[in-house]
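Reopening this ticket.

The earlier resolution said the output was attached, but the attachment link was broken on my side. Pasting everything inline this time so it's all in one place.
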Amino acid sequence: MTAEEFKSLNVINGKWKSLIIYNLSDGRKRFTHLLRLTSGISQKVLCENLKDLENDNLIGKEYFYEYPPRVEYFLTNKGYKYAKLLKEFQKLG
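Inline output:
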């Protein structure tokens, strides 16, 4: 891991962001699915973390204009790089 990659890990500090990225690493998820996968997180905290990750360009969301409306969250290319680093850390631990 380069020094720049290590410094950039500050973007995903906190209790939930790395877990959200990890949960999205195997594909798109809806809000309720992420809520179930990330046990112990409240809806409010999940929503705040998703917004932060989207602002940091780690995740994106796609709106589906149907009834009922649907939104799916996914990792961006930058997000996949972070997910790869997280998986490497998991192997070490």
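Reporter confirms the inline version is readable. DSSP finds five helices and three strands in the chain. The domain at 13-92 is CATH 1.10.10.10 (Arc Repressor Mutant, subunit A).
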